[in-house]
Write a structure and sequence with these properties.
- Helices cover 36% and strands 22% of the residues.
- The chain contains 9 helices and 9 strands.
- The protein starts with a helix and ends in an 8-residue tail after the last helix.
């Protein structure tokens, strides 16, 4: 009987390639999404890898929308989303790993101590364009807004009952670090970012300052800040064994120190 050796070789190669890929997947996780969650997820991943030799976890940013889409499409084992899921996202399962808030930031040299919701809305609509109109220095206001697809933008718009088309932005940024870099380098700027990220940067000496919101100081530790949100890991369908183990670890008391180091609020026991 004639045997096509080339065909046999190709089938064998494909079999072992598939087997190798499956084995690699059993020892590797891809996690993508929110730039707010990513630094925390990365630290948790490092500790998980140290506790589990041979496991590799790849953490990539790109916004909550990417986390949702990648989890749905199977491009990531786990998505990162810095907000609660919407009704249209009920096909995904959320696992909260910490709590955060969204706070307004200005340059450290700005002598404005607080802003009302109405003043923030007026600034973002371009109706107030100079800090002297609010009792501050004679300095043009530079409005920093978030890009489409970022959960921080969605929550900001919802809280202030704004449409993105109404905002007169001078700078549009992606992640929190871009927002902090822009505000810290522009004395007249105002923006909104993760409170945890902003608190961390303030501690490092970055020249920014968090403003109270509706008279409440910018912290989610007491659970009353107006713009608080859950930081979630999400999966499509039943997570793999490795993904389930990682999520359980990320929700455990073992990582509370990492959560606090990022200035987020750990889950209650």
């Amino acid at each position: 009987m004639f045997v096509n050796l080339k065909l046999v070789w190709l089938v064998t190669l494909l079999f072992f390639s598939s087997f190798s890929t499956t084995m690699a997947a059993d020892n590797r996780l891809v996690i993508t999404g929110s730039s707010t969650v990513a630094p925390l997820a990365l630290e948790i991943a490092k500790l998980f890898e140290n506790n589990n030799p041979g496991i590799r976890i790849d953490v990539q940013t790109g916004g909550s929308s990417r986390g949702i889409n990648d989890a749905r499409m199977g491009l990531a084992n786990i998505g990162m989303v810095s907000r609660a899921l919407k009704p249209a996202e009920s096909d995904l399962t959320p696992f909260t790993i910490a709590m955060d808030g969204i706070g307004m930031i200005v340059h450290k040299s700005n002598n404005i101590k607080t802003l009302s919701n109405a003043q923030i809305i007026a600034i973002y609509k371009g109706k107030i364009t100079n800090w002297k109109q609010l009792g501050g220095s004679d300095l043009a206001i530079s409005v920093v807004n978030k890009a489409e697809g970022r959960s921080t933008l969605e929550l900001f718009l919802k809280h202030f009952s704004l449409k993105n088309s109404q905002i007169k932005a001078h700078v549009v940024i992606g992640d929190n670090q871009q927002g902090i870099k822009t505000v810290s380098g522009t004395p007249g700027a105002i923006g909104y970012v993760s409170i945890g990220t902003a608190e961390y940067e303030e501690k490092q000496g970055t020249p920014i300052r968090l403003l109270p919101l509706a008279g409440v100081s910018a912290s989610v530790r007491d659970g009353v800040f107006p713009l608080s949100r859950p930081l979630n890991l999400v999966t499509k369908g039943k997570p793999s064994l490795l993904a389930k183990r990682f999520i359980g670890f990320a929700q455990s008391a073992e990582v509370h120190g990492l959560v606090k180091n990022q200035f987020f609020v750990p889950l209650k026991p």
